[in-house]
Amino acid sequence: MANVTFVSDLPPLPAYEVRPLPDLFPWISDFWLSLLLPHVAYWVVSMFFHIIDIYDLFPQYRLHTPEEITQRNLAGRWEVARDVLIEQCIQIASSAVLSLTESRQMTGMEDYEVAVWARRIRLAQRALPSLLGLLGLNAVAISKSLAASYPVLAGVLAGGHYPFLTTELDAGTVVPSFAAWELAVAKFIYWILIPGFQLWFAACVLDAWQYFWHRAMHLNKWMYTRWHARHHRLYVPYAYGALYNHPVEGFVLDTLGAGIAYKAALLTPRLGMIFFAGSMLKTVDDHCGYALPFDPLQRITSNNAAYHDIHHQSWGIKTNFSQPFFTIWDRWLGTRYEGDVKLRYAREREKAAAKAAAKAAAAANGKKVVVESESESESSMGETAATAKKTANGKVKAK
Asked: For 235, which of 18, 72, 151, 354 could close a Cys bridge (C-beta 3.0–4.6 Å)?
């Protein structure tokens, strides 16, 4: 399809021809890339943190000790990996359905759209002389005085009047053209500002969706015990346990929430790849168990691994519901944890170390060891996961 638009006192808009956008890579279609990219990113980053964890490369930045992982968590690593893979299969199937609802992304009109924004910038300049007049400044006189030395600035002050900027069409007709700065600003708006706003809006929608569903799953005993309690079997989160959820919870919170955000923000399939992969990376990072000073994802917002880890503790489980990007809903609705955490974390480390030592001593003596784990309940509701072990005093017993 071709289109030519011409207005005599404004630069003409270029012709364009729409065609299907080629795949990003020749060896995989955008369809399959959109399905697999978030999950490849999930495991690549998870394995990065897993290697750090296994070899204890940055112990000074750990939120929990290795003993806490083995003594406090109620789910084994293989069980976690299995459930994560199940959820990822559900997400891939859901993403395929979502992709089929989208028409193929087209290209060819980008220069035209940039020119449209450049025109809007040119038209906006027409208000400048009047605005300067309100301040007692004569824009026309100032423009004339600057015309010889700074012609572009003079054109701006004159209300977007650039008589020296022209171009010749194929037919020999001379028409106005855009200033370089107008095109630069238009490109920034089209390529950076608008997509950035769309991604930000999608993040806001996802945050709102997850906050209220997440909080509801803590307030409603039925939803907590049947769905959400599984995720809280990890008192000490680690990276690849980020998607360790009941399939229903995973679909409602993560899959459906991300799909709604994608549609609400009017994201293109390419922007959708960025959004879905970025959301996945943020979720992994929030469960990584490390407060790394060089981790950019933990510097973008205050909702990071340290913030979300509080929610996984028995004493913070009623707070810090916001995820995965911002903390605004916790702040607005008074669910942000405000107490001191250093002493609480120190006590948990001491308990885990004592349990590990007692277990090792009992094993050395050939005695059977039973490690009694923390309750998975939220004290105000008595919410206890069916799979959690109930204990009398949380100590290690040797028999």
From this structure: 72
